[in-house]
Structure formats: C-alpha cells, structure tokens
Amino acid sequence: MTSAENSLDQQLQLFASVVRAVNAGLIVLDADQRIVLWNDWMERHAQQPASAMLGRSLTELFPELANGRLHQAVVGALKNNFSSLISQTLNKAPLPLYASAEDAAAGTRIQQAVQVMPLEFGNQPRHCLIQVTDVSMAVAREKQLREQALELQSQTLLDGLTGIANRRRFDAHMDDEFRRAKRNVSPLSLIMVDVDCFKSYNDNYGHQKGDECLIQIAGALTRVLGRPCDLLARYGGEEFMAILPDTNADGAMRIAEMMRREVEALELEHAFSSVAKRVTISLGVVTQIPQHNATVAHMIGAADRALYKAKHSGRNRAAAYGSGAS
Amino acid sequence: MFNLSELEHDALVELFNQGVGQAAAAMSQIVHEEVTMSVPAILFQTRAECAKALGNKDGRRICAITQHYEGAFNTEAILMFPEEKSLEIVRLMIGQTVSMDELSDMEQEAMSEIGNIILNSCMSTLANIAGKELQGSLPIYHVGTSDEILSHSGSQWDGLVLTLKIDFNIEKHQINGYVAFLLDLTALQDLRQYIDNYLARIGR
C-alpha cells in the first residue's frame, strides 16, 4: 500500500467511525431510493440491524411513508437537488423510531426532526441523505411552557375574589362577541347586575361578609348560565355583567329573571336593605343586533340605563333598555 | 431598470401560481385542511424599495425563511411575513391557539418547513422551464427589519429583488406574505432567457 492509499484508508476508517458514533440517525438512499447506509443510531432506535435494511427501498420497508411528506422530500432531493426540512410540529414522527424496547412495545415513537439533502459524490448518480434528530426533550419542554403560559393567561383574566372572569376578560370577550354578532347579524344580549344596598351590607356586616356575599352571588349567577358561549364577569365592586350571544330580548329577560330568583333563593340575610330582608339584585338588560355604526361602549351605556331604570322602579327586578318598566 | 415584457411578466406570474399551487397542495396534505395560495402580482424592485414597502421605516419586524439556490441561476430566496402574521400562520397550521409573543423553537422549525415547501415549489417550476437544475440549501429562520433581512447577501450587492405577493388561505383566514428573490444582473438575464425559451417552446 502506498502512503497516499494508506492515508485515504485511514480517512475512510475515520469517516466510518464518525458515522457510527454520531448522535443522529443517518440514512443514505441511492438514486432508486434503496438504502445504502443505515448508521448505528438508526439500528438502535429502529431496532433493525443495517443488514436487514441495506439494499431495500424505503417505501418497501415503510409503506406508510409512500407519497407522504418525507417521501416527497426524498424525491425532491433525488430528482430536483432540493433540500427539505420536515418539522416535528407539522409531521408527527414519520419514522418508527423508539427510545427503548418498552416504548417500541407501547408504540411510543421518538419525536423527530428530519432533514433531507441531496448527496453528490464521485460520478455516482445522485444519492440522498436523511438525517433524523431526536427532539423529544424540546417538545416536552415546550409543552410544559405552553401549559404554564395558559395557566398564567387564565390567572390574569380571572377575578381574584370570585374566580369568574375579570373586567379585562369581559372587555376582550365583549369585543369578540360584538364583532361576531355584527358579522352574523345575530342578536347579542348584555345583562348588567348590581347588588341592592350593598354599601349598607358592607357597612353593617363588615367587608369580610361582603366578600363572602359577592362569592355566593357570583356562584348563583353562574348556575343560571348554561351555555359555554355565555360569559359572566365581575365588572366593578358589586357589579356583574353577563354576555349572552345569539340571545333575543325575550330570552335575555328570562335569564335575568332566573338570576334575580336564584340570588333571592340564597336567602342571605340583609337586615339593612330598603328592599327586602335578604340580599337582592337589580338587573339592566339590553339586546341588539349591532348595526354598522354601533359600538360596544354604547351598548354598555344602554345596559347601564336599563339598570338605572330597574333601581328607580323599586330594585329587586330586571328592566329592559328601550321598553317600559318591567 | 430591468423590466420584463408583458408576455414574459404574465408567463412568470403563471409559473409562480403553479408553484404555490403545488405548495398549497402539499400543505393541505400535512394539515388535512384546505390550504390555498395564489400569487396576484410580481414586481421588480431595488432592495431599498422592497425594504421600504415591507415597512422598514416603522421598524416593523419581519419573520423570514431564506434558502440559497444555485445552478440554472443563483439566488437567495426569502419568504417573508410580518411577525404577527407568522404567529397566525403557524398556529392555524398546527391548530393551536395559545398565544405567546414569539414563535417557540419548535414553531420556528414549523415555519421554516412552511417556507421550505413554498420556496422549493416555486423554484422547481423555474428549474422545470429552465431545463436545468437548481441546488437548494436547507431553510434558515430569521427575524428582523426588512432591511436587515434583505441585506443578508452583503452591502456591495447591486442586483434587483423580484418580489411576489402571496395570498395564503387557511381556515377562512387570508394572510398576505411576500417571496423575494435576490437576483444579480447575470441571474436576471438567465431568468429572462429561460422565460423566452419557454414562451418560444409553447409557441406564444
């Protein structure tokens, strides 16, 4: 052996040992999509020795890949000389690779990011390299981050005392529903709720009892709202708002009356109320099919005026905006 | 300024529409939902004009996926979306609604794949009419102002940008993006030659 041959031989041995050691799956396909290289990482994670894979075509071994994204990327590399990235997020684990024998038995695949690249060497027809990386750790970490973000997001949108939606959530939800009602030309109802004589309740029973009272009322109002699209929010101190999409004026008045009765039925003693011996609420109801120039602020103003009407008609009742006292 | 004849221009628009059509089909297959894409207009601009059109002055952040191609002609291909739109696209593609302010690593990778599919499809129609190969690199993800992204190929560069407006539709949402090809004088001449040969071949 000449020294040049000797160093070439050394070089080849070096490359071969790198391919064996590298912490990524390497597959090389020839121009006919037959496997000509299947490294140790692949042997371990596919639980298939190279000897069983070499010379066989990719789609013969893995028929589920046929015409899928990975297969198209292979064709793109062999035919068009293009490189492709196959992300874990958009392609759920295309290759049957497993971290352990237990995972293999359970069918739990490694989360994988795959790169496909054309390979030119010597005067051989073009080959292609499939490179597989295990991204399971990154996927798990992001899942955790996303859950934390979701948790945080929901915390900043909830009222700390009552656990129902807060003012911020109300504003965002109201905007969404208002836009939706406008687009769909559907009726949207809003109920503004105020606890009757709450100042004297707080003054006489103390703020702690006042807080408990609000928690109970929030619970009672929530029980009345059945649909997932309805939203009850704490709007201010002792004010609540209910957003009722796709609800007409009759429906909204019915809900308001149910809310009034539900709170009355709590039988929370209020010896200092000018209305009754127990805690009661007044409600202002407005229903609109929002027109082009309508605004959320105007609709909230209308609910406020209806509530004012309910209070001036003696409290413990619901009044609708734009109709006689009810 | 380099300009194409009306016939050349129309042929190029048609070819790009074929390209993004194939990309849309590939993406529909991935998300099992209808994705459509079209190229309503193309434009040759200087780099400064293109950067300005993409809101460089306002310091608007752009999310870009770049790939280098060489062979039939040499170009840096860039898919660009305003950053907030890239969040929307990826989340529509993944079907996930939790919004963080930036794309996570895995989402960036997904965005890179979307760019990879669109750019490879556009280039494959061009390689096809050229009858020559284009070797494509892997996609790289960038975020920055349009100026930062477009100056990727160095400040000495004096070619033109071929800009494609792309309408991307998924789940009743329409999102507009841009594909830019940085072409130097040689590449521009090569491209025109391929289009002319193609037009002659199909007898137009």
N→C terminal distance of chain A: 107 Å
Weakly predicted, low-confidence segments of chain A? none
CATH-scheme architecture of chain B: 3-Layer(aba) Sandwich
Q: So, CATH architecture of the largest domain in chain A?
A: 2-Layer Sandwich
Which geometry of chain A do the CA atoms define? elongated
Q: List the secondary-structure elements of chain B in sequence, H or E.
A: HEHEEHHEEHEEH
Please summarize the sheet with the most strands of chain B: 7 strands, antiparallel
What is the number of independent domains of chain A? 2
Q: Say what oligomer this is.
A: heterodimer
CATH fold title of the largest domain in chain A: Alpha-Beta Plaits
CATH homologous superfamily of chain B - what is it?
A: CheC-like
Our estimate of the beta-strand percent of chain A is: 15-25%
Strand sequence of the main sheet of chain A, in spatial order? 2-1-5-4-3
Using only CA atoms, what is the Rg of chain A?
34 Å
Please state the average pLDDT score of chain B: 88
**What is the alpha-carbon Rg of chain B in Å?**
16 Å
**The top level CATH class name of the largest domain in chain A:** Alpha Beta
Number of helices of chain A: 12
What is the overall number of helices of chain B?
A: 6
